[in-house]
Specification:
single chain, about 350 residues, alpha+beta, Glutamine Phosphoribosylpyrophosphate, subunit 1, domain 1, eight-stranded mixed β-sheet, four-stranded antiparallel β-sheet, about 40% helix, binds aspartic acid
């Protein structure tokens, strides 16, 4: 009997060890944060947003579950949201003051910290793919405006007519803004940028973000989304982050890099876990998850203190998929190799734990 118990215990332990060692993947996506009003969210609207978020999550998850690259997973997820008219990226982008749609995007590979970004492009259907082409086929990190479009042409991107991006709801928002002399925040109360972050089974991290910016933007205004370190950052040693919110504040805080830098420091200090004699101890997985959440919350708190709002998504090398936002809602979703698969809109709707092992 004793032997049987010992054998079962051993089997359970080795199963736990296997689960611990099994390659993990993790994906988080967002479709923008903002002051979302639950009363204005009809069941039909909610279903439409959830369907597109789920489609993006499924496209990225499938690649990761099949052993594919984090970079491919985030591109697949972002393309679906760029193509959806519901989000402020690609089709459905907000209007500038002059009545055009000007798109920004950035992408970063955590393996080598190679990065690409474009700002103010008007005729590229999927700006995230152009950003990735800047990363892989140019010596540069960021291209803007007419130059970015000339580069796109040279690399074989089709010219998409500007009308493709325009939607009646976004045009109406610009007209309302002008008629009532509203600010970009008053007119939308929400953002709608899209982004994705992923960990693949090889342990590589990737992050990407794509946006139309903010309604009524002028003078070539560029927000945080295409700026590496502000709206997007990925580093295999720390985390992958994509942000959404009032870009000026995210730029000033350097949100995405700030989160990764703090996590690198926490990791270097063994997650600040010490026994009562001051010796470092291996932290529990839950403690690490909490530290990651605390770091993201602290940086978002910094944004709020300056007067900004919005949110971030991040994944870590351990596979945590974390959200942090200081708005009432953020269109979001996450999926992991442990079977987590959920989309959510308002605060506190998550059902699953963020850690793949739990
Ligand atoms: N962060 C974006 C910007 O400021 C807006 C957004 O997140 O929707 O351009």
């Amino acid at each position: 009997m004793k032997n049987l118990i010992a054998a079962v215990a051993l089997a359970l332990m080795s199963h736990a060890a296997m689960a611990e060692d099994a390659p993990k993947w993790s994906l988080a996506i967002h479709g923008g944060a903002g002051t979302l009003d639950p009363k204005a969210m009809t069941p039909e609207k909610r279903a439409a947003y959830e369907a597109d978020l789920q489609a993006a999550l499924d496209a990225g998850s499938k690649i990761l579950a099949d052993g594919g690259d984090a970079m491919d997973a985030i591109k697949a997820a972002i393309i679906i949201m760029e193509d959806s008219p519901l989000f402020n990226a690609g089709k459905g982008a907000v209007f500038t003051w002059d009545g055009t749609n000007e798109l920004d995007a950035s992408i970063m590979d955590g393996r080598d910290r190679s990065a690409g970004a474009v700002a103010g492009v008007k005729t590229v259907k999927n700006p995230i793919l152009l950003a990735d082409t800047v990363r892989t086929q140019s010596e540069h990190v960021m291209l803007m405006g007419a130059g970015a479009e000339a580069f796109a042409l040279e690399k074989g991107f089709a010219v998409t007519p500007p009308e493709y991006f325009a939607t009646p709801a976004r045009r109406e928002a610009l007209e309302r803004m002008k008629a009532k002399k509203l600010s970009a925040l008053d007119v939308d109360h929400k953002f709608g940028t899209v982004g994705a972050v992923a960990l693949d089974m090889k342990g590589n991290l990737a992050a990407g973000t794509s946006t139309g910016g903010m309604t009524g933007k002028r003078w070539g205004r560029v927000g945080d989304a295409p700026v590496i370190g502000a709206g997007t950052y990925a580093d295999n040693r720390a985390c992958a982050v994509s942000a959404t919110g009032w870009g000026e504040y995210f730029l000033r805080v350097g949100v995405a890099h700030e989160i990764c830098a703090r996590l690198r420091a926490a990791r270097a200090m063994n997650w600040l876990s010490f026994d009562n004699k001051g010796a470092p101890i291996a932290p529990e997985a839950e403690d690490i998850a909490q530290t990651v959440q605390d770091v993201a919350d602290a940086v978002m708190y910094d944004v709020a203190e300056l007067g900004g709002d919005g949110g971030v998504i991040l994944v870590t090398p351990e596979g945590h998929a974390i959200f942090s936002f200081n708005t009432t809602g953020m269109y979001r979703g996450r999926a992991t190799s442990a079977g987590v698969n959920e989309v959510a809109i308002f605060g506190g709707e998550e059902k699953a734990s963020a850690t793949p092992d739990h």
